[in-house]
Amino acid sequence: MGPKVLVSDKLSETAVQIFRDRGIDVDFLPDVGKDKEKLAEIIGQYDGLAIRSATKVTPTILDAATNLKVIGRAGIGTDNIDKDAASKKGVIVMNTPFGNMITTAEHAIAMMFAAARQLPEASASTHAGKWEKSKFMGTELTNKTLGVIGAGNIGGIVCDRARGLKMKVIAYDPFLSQEKAEQMQVEKVELDDLLARADFITLHVPLTDTTRNILSRENLAKTKKGVRIINCARGGLVDEEALAELLKSGHVAGAAFDVFSEEPAKENPLFNLPNVVCTPHLGAATTEAQENVALQVAEQMSNYLLDGAVENALNMPSMTAEEAKVMGPWVALAGHLGSFIGQLTDEPVKAINILYDGVVSEMNLPALNCAVVAGIMKKVNPDVNMVSAPVVAKERGIQISTTNQDKSGAFEGYIKVTVVTPERERSIAGTVFSDGKPRFIQIKGINIDAEVGEHMLYTTNEDVPGIIGTLGGILGENNVNIANFTLGRTKTGGEAIALLYVDGVVDQKVLDDLAATGLFKQIRPLSFDVA
């Protein structure tokens, strides 16, 4: 049976059809998102949940979502999803940050025109039959300096459109490289320089601890007299009270705001000022954008449920469909290595150190890290997965470190995992052969070559004669068939290990019979998810 998705908000029929075309069973119940009791009652049968802003994904809903793997938000804001609870539950939260880029950028440009020419007030005045032609003296955009704070996806489109309007564009963005700025044909500047020079300032940054109140009272005071300020990004980026004062004093000539520090905005210091344009968070509100984000979320969720591709996830490293194909065997190997050590480790884990060598060192390491940690943590929490594992590890204070290096040996690439506990360090390495099958290649520094099987038996002993016969004999007597048998040792008479791939579960009687021989230091049955 394939994956099943619930669409609990109003998504376009085209988006719903994408799920169907990809072979995903979908229930389109656009009003169930508003009925939290009904949603909690039915959510348990679904692998995916596609929403807009009406559905509230609370811990209660997540508790009932026993099969849920992914929540897809058609749009950028995910305040209606408890992301911490979703991460602990192992549910990926995706949004669609790019579906409304053009729409939001166009709204910023429209707001800039509206502020420059006082369009809303002029319209209201004309509707009232006043014909106040001399009252609404505007300003041209041509040759004016536009200061763009945040030149990422949306800011970049605004820069491009502003250049088309023959404006001079200066941009402040700590992540914008000089090369990229030159490519965009904008001048990269520091914030103080932007504040001093810009005739118009437009904000295109997310609300973070760094950007909160970026246009503070202090920074607004540094602006050029006659500046106009546009905010179509997020409320909380501008000190609205300080801006209102500067508008009243005439230092700021106009403002255009689509977002406010408190929404819905019933009252605000900027309201009812003569030179301010306000809209009710319309940045993404076009038919095209709403359709785009709906189609995008359907594609992303389908790609994840069918191919394991992770796009625009907020609580998991992204992995494209192409990466997922190439990395699939390495992700499986990373999980097996973690699982091997996890099953052998009975004491608390202090640190996990992961070494990536050769071809694998150039892959998507954050995703591989998640697979390793998930494998290790499965023993303490069988429900853990690549999403929840880092959360579980962090809660337990486990330090995770990675090293990547160029090809250093016979293998094109390998992964080595070392777990540190208060008592010891334990390490295992593995690779992926050209047939796409993961192999264990080193345990405790001893080189081996072992296929990964669903049921395995691991033993350690002193290198003495008779071990193979003893293992084969006791497993045979207990009717356990050996599919593969791998041995390794440090040196003659030194420490030796055996790793057996067997056809069924190794039960307690086998372990007791082996222990009774007195030949083995450690005897451990292992199981791996090789499906």
From TrEMBL:
Its EC number is 1.1.1.95. The keyword Amino-acid biosynthesis applies. It catalyses: (R)-2-hydroxyglutarate + NAD(+) = 2-oxoglutarate + NADH + H(+); (2R)-3-phosphoglycerate + NAD(+) = 3-phosphooxypyruvate + NADH + H(+). Gene3D superfamilies: 3.30.70.260, D-3-phosphoglycerate dehydrogenase, domain 3, NAD(P)-binding Rossmann-like Domain. One of its GO terms (molecular function) is phosphoglycerate dehydrogenase activity. It comes from the Bacteria. Pathway: Amino-acid biosynthesis; L-serine biosynthesis; L-serine from 3-phospho-D-glycerate: step 1/3. It holds the Pfam family 2-Hacid_dh. It is an enzyme of class 1 (oxidoreductase). Keywords: Amino-acid biosynthesis, NAD, Oxidoreductase, Serine biosynthesis. InterPro entries: ACT-like_dom_sf, ACT_dom, ASB_dom_sf, D-2-hydroxyacid_DH, D-isomer_2_OHA_DH_cat_dom, D-isomer_DH_CS, D-isomer_DH_CS1, D-isomer_DH_NAD-bd. Residues 456-531 form the ACT domain. Catalyzes the reversible oxidation of 3-phospho-D-glycerate to 3-phosphonooxypyruvate, the first step of the phosphorylated L-serine biosynthesis pathway. Also catalyzes the reversible oxidation of 2-hydroxyglutarate to 2-oxoglutarate. Belongs to the D-isomer specific 2-hydroxyacid dehydrogenase family. This is D-3-phosphoglycerate dehydrogenase. It comes from Thalassovita aquimarina.
